[in-house]
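Homework help board

Subject: predicted structure for assignment chain

Our instructor gave us this sequence and asked us to write out the predicted structure in C-alpha cell form, then describe one feature. I got the C-alpha cells but I'm not sure how to describe them. Can anyone check?
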Amino acid sequence: MDFEQLLDKSLNKVREEIKTELSKSLDEAIKLLNEGHNKIVQEYSQRINELIVKTKEEIEGEKARLEVENKRTLLVEKEYWINKVYERVLGKIGEVVKTKEYKDAIENIISKEIKEIREEKVTIYCSPNDKLMIEKIVGNNKNVTVKTDEKMLGGIKIYFERSGLTRDFSLKLILDQVFDSMRGKISDMLFGGK
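My C-alpha cell output:
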C-alpha cells in the first residue's frame, strides 16, 4: 500500500468517525430542542389552563353576585308593591269606620270589657271621629272616661287605671297583625306563587 492509499484510508476512517459524531451530536441537539419545546408548551399550557380556571371562577363569582343583586332588587320591588297594597288598605279604614258592622263590633267590645271591669276606672281612647259614638255606647258609666287620640284611625284602646293594663283594639294594630300574617299570601296574589 502506498502512502496515498494509506492516507485516504485514514482520512475515510476519520471522516466516518466525524460523520458518526456529528450525527450523534445532531440527534442530541434535536432531542434537547424537542425537550425544551415540550417543556415550554407544557408550562404555557398550564398557565393558560390556570388563567381559564381563574377566569371561570371570576365569571361564576360575578354571576352569583348578580343573582343575589337581582334577588335583592326583586325583593325590594315586591316589598314596595306590598307596601302599596298596605297603604291602600289603610286608606280604606275611613270607609270601614262608617259601616254598621264596625259600630256593632265597637259596641260589643265595649260592652264585654265594661262588664268585666266592675268598679275599676278605665279610659277609652278613640279617634276624634268615633268619640260621640263611643260616648253614646258608654252612656252614663262614671267609671269610664272617653278621650281622643289623634293618631288613631279607628277602633279603641282601653286603659285600666288600677292594673295599668291597656287592651288595644285599634284598627291599625288589627290591620298590622292581619297584614303581617297574610304577607306571604298577598305576595303570592301579586306576583304568583304557590
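Reply (TA_rk): Your C-alpha cells look well-formed. For the description, you could write something like this. Residues 122 and 161 are 6 Å apart (CA to CA). That's the kind of observation they're looking for.
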